[in-house]
Design brief:
This protein has 121 residues and is of the alpha+beta class. The chain has 4 helices and 8 strands.
Length: 121
């Protein structure tokens, strides 16, 4: 029987994502150590909401740009994409079938985070 990551405790989900966690046959999700630290610093309810949204929106089509959720970041080599989740922003890269989550930050801190950690093209 396959257990969905949604049914695991927050600590177990972070542990799985800290290494890597198979979303499906399409994408493999990996949290960079910095992103894992980001998630550990937020409230449990917010971290759970963020992980649910990451699983929902990045599972099958992490490169599918939408008007409200996923944005391709221009003029940056990394991170390539931004996922909007309420007041949170998840920055990530996509390579082949893998999603590398680089950072999880609040909306007001997103510009500063990109200036510090974004890699220009």
């Amino acid at each position: 029987m396959r257990v969905s990551a949604r049914h695991l405790s927050l600590g177990s989900r972070l542990l799985l994502l800290g290494g890597c966690f198979g979303f499906s046959r399409v994408a493999l999700g990996v949290l960079a150590p910095e992103a894992l630290d980001d998630l550990r610093r937020v409230r449990k309810s917010d971290a759970s909401m963020i992980l649910d949204a990451v699983e929902l929106h990045l599972r099958h089509a992490p490169e599918l740009v939408s008007k409200r959720r996923i944005k391709r970041l221009r003029e940056l080599r990394s991170p390539q994409y931004r996922l909007r989740i309420d007041e949170w922003r998840v920055f990530y890269d996509v390579a082949e079938r893998a999603v590398l989550i680089r950072g999880v930050v609040r909306k007001p801190d997103a510009s500063d985070w990109l200036a510090q950690f974004g890699e220009p093209s």
